[in-house]
Write a structure and sequence with these properties.
The chain is α/β, with parallel strands linked by helices. The protein has a single domain, classed as Ribosomal Protein S5, domain 2 (2-Layer Sandwich), CATH 3.30.230.10. It contains 4 helices and 5 strands. Strand 2 and strand 3 form a beta hairpin. Helix 2 crosses helix 3. It is globular, with a radius of gyration of 14 Å. It starts with a strand and ends with a helix. The model has no long low-confidence stretch (mean pLDDT 91).
């Protein structure tokens, strides 16, 4: 991914859940918060409610693919966590990618702009 690093520290996930903004949809829940860095950080979660390991890994692959295709349209300097929902296992990858382009990216942009400008710049 071009401008993205992996978010894998539990403390960062918890901070994002508590202090970040979120947008829920049928397929996933997207949490966003500025990080003040010159790159984005992406975290993906798929709980046991999704299904067995095969379904969870497929859900994570779909999310990763959709993010990779829409990454160039996103602003730089934010933490993003995408939580998979069980209905993501029933769709094709092209359908989720189209959903992310049409609804996910505008929602992320709107949430990112809703933070004050001073929060976006500090670390």
């Amino acid at each position: 991914m071009l401008y993205t690093e992996i978010l894998n520290d539990n403390r960062d996930f918890m901070t994002l859940y508590k202090k970040g903004r979120y947008a829920a949809s049928k397929y996933s829940v997207i949490y966003v918060r500025p990080n003040g860095r010159p790159f984005n950080r992406l975290g993906i979660t798929a709980g046991k409610k999704i299904g067995n390991a095969v379904h969870r890994n497929r859900a994570k692959r779909l999310i990763r693919l959709a993010y990779r295709e829409s990454e160039i349209r996103l602003p730089v300097g934010m933490d993003i966590v995408i939580v998979a929902r069980s209905s993501i296992c029933d769709i094709k990858s092209t359908e989720y990618c189209a959903y992310m382009q049409k609804y996910g990216v505008p929602e992320i942009m709107k949430m990112f702009r809703s933070f004050p400008a001073d929060n976006r710049k500090k670390k």
